[in-house]
Design goal:
47% of the residues lie in helices and 11% in strands. By secondary structure, it is of the alpha/beta class. The protein has 2 domains: 7-19 and 157-209, no CATH class; 24-152, HUPs (Rossmann fold). α2 (41-51) packs across α3 and α7 packs across α8 (198-209). The protein is globular. Residues 42-150 form the DUF218 domain.
């Protein structure tokens, strides 16, 4: 398991990394939605934004995926909540949605949960892994088009993020997979269409040729 980014892959990985960052400017919203994944840093950053006054209510959403069941055996949202409590987020400021198994579920089931609790929502921050931002945004705008959505992730440079995960191959495979999903999910009606610049397509193609295809559909 490689822990540092090889120089011969760096430029292409950085290209994909930069593409998936929506570069949204944070501002206060009604709810912060922490999207479940293998990355506990999502819960950490959600707690930090709560303490910074960016939203008064958190929803953690996620069941399990094959990549998370060993790390979070009780479900992603449950473990995220426990981590946020350890970071001094009040229990009454956290809701959990423990059934979602994909990003579409994250959005749809969170929306239903908030409606069932009578929470009026005009704006949200979607907190995710850095390379999930663009896909989360496209999915949210398809399934919850009237909402004002801001995307956010821990503000880490690529090398620092890779170091925090400790597995270069995993990060690259996830980046490549999410890049493919920008186009495929729009074609399937799961998300709005977004432009994929030529340099992103070329970087994606080269990384697939290098064998980073574990997360391809």
């Amino acid at each position: 398991m490689t822990k540092t980014l090889p120089d011969d892959l760096r430029a292409d990985v950085q290209t994909l990394w930069d593409y998936h960052d929506m570069h949204h400017e944070l501002r206060p919203t009604d709810v912060g939605i922490g999207l479940g994944s293998h990355d506990l840093g999502v819960a950490t950053y959600t707690a930090e934004l709560f303490h910074a006054g960016m939203f008064p209510l958190i929803v953690f959403t996620g069941a399990n995926a094959p990549t998370t069941v060993e790390r979070f055996p009780r479900g992603e949202a449950v473990h995220y909540r426990e981590h946020a409590l350890d970071l001094d987020v009040p229990d009454d400021a956290i809701l959990i949605e423990p059934e979602a198994r994909n990003t579409g579920d994250n959005i749809t089931l969170t929306r239903k949960l908030l409606e069932s609790r009578g929470v009026e929502v005009g704006s949200v921050v979607l907190i995710s892994r850095p390379y999930q931002q663009r896909r989360a945004y496209a999915t949210c705008k398809k399934l919850w088009p009237e909402i004002d959505v801001i995307c956010a992730s821990r503000p880490l440079p690529l090398d620092d993020y890779v170091g925090s995960i400790g597995d270069v191959e995993r990060v690259i495979n996830m980046l490549v997979g999410d890049t493919q999903r920008i186009t495929v999910y729009a074609e399937r009606g799961f998300a709005i269409q977004q432009k994929v610049p030529n340099n992103v397509t070329n970087a994606y193609d080269r990384l697939v040729q290098e064998g980073f295809a574990e997360r391809l559909i």
